[in-house]
Amino acid sequence: MPKSNEELREEITELETEILQLERYLLSLYRTSFGDHFPSLLLPDDSSLPPWKPYTTKVHNDQVSSVSDTSLSPSFKPFLETDKIKRSESGNPSLADLLGLNNLGPNKLSEELLRLISVIHFKLSDKGHSRLVNNTNNENINDEKCGQELGVIIHKLCLDEDNLKSVDSLLQNFRSLVQKLENVDPARMAREEKVAFWINIHNALVMHAYIVNGMGEDATSTMILKAAFNIGGKWVNAYDVQSSILGLRECRSPSRLWMLFSPARSSKTSSSGHTYALEYAEPLLHFALSTGALTDPMVRIYTAEGIFQELRQARDGFIQTRVEFDKRETRILLPKIIDNYAKDTSLNMAELFNIISECLRETKRTKMRRVVKKRQDRCINWIKHDFNFRYYIHWEIMRESFII
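Below the sequence we write its predicted structure tokens.
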């Protein structure tokens, strides 16, 4: 039946509101993209626009694409999915060209994948199962831990039909980005590009696996084996990335999750001579890879331009918030990730204590020196890996989507 004039007026009003929201979003993209390069660039004041809120564009006669959570560039489907916005007839670059959304390179593609799946996790976490904190240990904020990096803690995903339906367009955008990985050739990347790319891909792949396979006992033990991306024509799973490509020792074994990954059961590409393997391993990667376990590091986006500085920052932040002491303060409690890092870098005890000391605040540094002085050879208790589900995601990944 033809729509009434009243219904048409309501749709027009809704579209006008969403156009205003899109204009505000475009202004934020301009500021983000050009602010550092053109500080004097003047943009119109958007204070007169309505308050920014994530929204979903309804489909009218199947002619308008669905757009959700436009605070994130990958969800801006007119740019990412059509790939048809090119230079104008005058030869001037379009907005999509200027923002680099038409031709995402491999590293930018991996960044957008991780950013988008992180937002999807947050939206599926439900209000009661996620919160903003400033530490990665027991989530009790005290004077010692004030000033740490902000992150969103996610304890549970609500994967019921209604919740999944609410992020359907975001998942569609994610899948469209995953398809672009088929055209990526990691073998042609520089080392810095490879390291950043594979961290982002690993973490995005595992986060997506939780959504696809759920969080039950059975799903947890098999999801990483099942989850894989087609990258450059080769199917790659999380175990391939961690062991065969990045060359890290199994910092989380033995466990029911990783015991499944024997050479006979992992994918065909899991071998020491993997096509995409790094020339040599990077020990700092222990502080970047996450499988959604309680004792895993914070999820961050890594860039090719600043990869090693970002990895050192991840290491320092992890150590700073994970070093604890027993009740009598006679032993230092350290996660096994630090032990594996020390082994991969061939650190002796004195060198390890020196690195840890440089990461700590004064109170803990003094306490550690006192413990080490008394019994250096027997002052460490290595904490076993805890496989209980929890994601700790850097706030910057989704700061525009997080409503405090």
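DSSP finds 13 helices and eight strands in the chain.
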